[in-house]
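Researcher: Please translate sequence to structure tokens.
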Amino acid sequence: MLLSTVPANGVRLHVEHHAGAAGAPALVFAHAFGGSSRTWHGVATAVGGAAPCAIPGLRGWGASEATETGYAVADMADDLAALVAALGLERWALVGHSMGGKAALALAARRPAGLEALVLVAPSPPTPEPMDDAERDRLRAAWGDAAAAETTLGKVTACRPPLLAREQFVADAVRASRAAWMAWLDSGSREDVSEMAGEIAVPALVVAGAEDGALGPDVQARETVARIPGARLETVAHAGHFIPLDAPAELAGLILAHVL
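Model: Translation complete:
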């Protein structure tokens, strides 16, 4: 694994690079709310060099630069598009989880050059996310709070991830910029980009966790799969919302089967 800082759309993004087979499209990952590039470590390890991987921290998350503004879904899509251009990727697939899934959908709808496939992992749907006011308020109050992050981890996973993954989850949540954190809860998660979904022209796979109580298979079938032409749904048993932590090897297998 190599680390770099890549200027993209006026912001410096921290990017993890994993080498992969020559001729395979690069996998470009976008992480969830509260996460970072480290969310994908288990998945990238399970990919095992079958394809190159470029894994950024999104603006304001992980080790990437934070700004006061620029956190709308379109802004995240702009950042990802600029990253792909900066890396000079000619063939690539986009993998987005939760918050990153909504941004990935918005970018794929633009039909960018070189994009060959789309994988949405427990995505925040293109319609406003069905988050009740109590949970939204809990998460707003949780910014920068390690104990609250531990509580959230229990809510979004169906199994107990390895110690390192748990520690990274908490550390990533605590170091997130306040601007990024609040922007998603107050506006990004509420955005309706459903009209864009019909513009997606690459093969699309939606992956849901069978034990995801908020954005599980039923929600994904109704709100996401039904809006993307030709999209198909796969359900991962014994996984909650954070499928990259609950079932990284199974998720990697689904991604590779869809992309390669």
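Researcher: Any highlights?
Model: The first strand starts at residue 2 and ends at 8.
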